[in-house]
Specification:
196 residues; 30% strand; two-stranded parallel sheet; 9 strands; alpha/beta; five-stranded mixed beta sheet
């Protein structure tokens, strides 16, 4: 491929019915597809002799809790030979199960597990879909917009029981008071101490 425009034309000519929107922005190709086409699109981009997107950079999600199709899944692919990137995205509902691309890119294993753990999005035919960043007893998905900022439980090591214990989150009052003074001028309590 000579230019990014040629690459976009090639992708659109081969995947005509599978691409909803195609555009070039910031010298990268953006493809919006339906979730049912993810395997076909990724397989074509990787194996086609002209596109050569042979590296999966990342899989992530964005949460839009006010929308019916709540999550936007984003796949980033890189072609070293063409020095080009493509970004594939599509929207899914909260309980939709997405096809895993681990059969095409084995490195997707970790990334899909991370999306599952952080957002609760499930992947069909994943070889080992389980939590990867949170504890097994952890409730909820921390990157969802409706997840409380302080979480539901806090974890600490108990010297008495000699094990890690879970307790409901309790915010101490001194963590809720802020002085909002400029850090360059110093806070009042530090100023008072230094005068003595």
């Amino acid at each position: 491929m000579k230019t990014i425009e040629d690459l976009e034309k090639k992708i659109n000519s081969e995947l005509t019915t599978k691409i909803n929107i195609s555009k070039i922005n910031h010298n990268q190709i953006y493809l919006n597809i339906n979730e049912s086409n993810i395997l076909n699109v990724v397989l074509f981009l990787k194996t086609n002799s002209e596109t050569k997107f042979k590296q999966l950079i990342d899989i992530t999600a964005v949460d839009y809790p006010e929308k019916d199709r709540r999550f936007k899944l984003v796949y980033l692919l890189l072609s070293h030979e063409n020095n080009q990137r493509v970004i594939i995205d599509f929207y899914v509902k909260e309980n939709d199960i997405i096809s895993s691309i681990t059969s095409i890119f084995p490195s997707a294993n970790w990334m899909e597990r991370e999306v599952f753990d952080m957002y609760g999005i499930e992947f069909k035919d994943h070889p080992n879909l389980r939590k990867i960043l949170t504890d097994y007893n952890f409730k909820g998905h921390p990157l969802r917009k409706d997840f409380p900022l302080t979480g539901h439980k806090e974890v600490r090591y108990s010297e008495n029981e000699k094990k890690v214990i879970y307790e409901p989150v309790k915010l101490e009052q001194n963590y809720r008071n802020f002085d909002y003074e400029s850090p360059w001028e110093g806070t009042k309590y530090i100023k008072d101490q230094t005068k003595e």
